[in-house]
User: Fold this.
Amino acid sequence: MPPIAPGNRAPSFSLPSNAGREVPSESLLGAWSVLYFYPRADTPGCTREAQAFTEQLHAFEKLHAAVFGISKDAVGALCKFRDKYTLTVELLSDSDLAVHKAFGAFGEKVMYGKRVEGVIRSTFVVNPEGVLAWSFTNVKVDGHVEKVLEKLRVLQGGGDSNDAPPQKRRGSETRS
Assistant:
């Protein structure tokens, strides 16, 4: 399933958190949200990504944006991951992959030259009205968080007003 296109309403969900609470998507309305989907806790790329979001969490908060990492890991594994690396970004468990699939963050991908089905590392920026404002698909971890921050600034009107829309293709960023 292709990723949800910017301009569409973000899929509804309610997922358990490593903070011991349920996070319904309706609770995110009224503020910006950054939802990043990653394959598995405590793997090298996923660890670097979670650490980068944790390091920049204050910058996201200054932009009034909540950040959530979403994986298929059980809540217990997310808690261990959080504690091992002192992560402060909130992690959500989507054990049945329903939310991954709704956003288009699960499907066919190429891994080590083979076509496989799995989690597609993706990040979605959702505006305060619950509409997808931007998506990053087939994310490369290094430098990604800085790109998300910059895009959030632009979307909020504080960035480069000459920002040209990117081409819509897999592996690119898309916006509404």
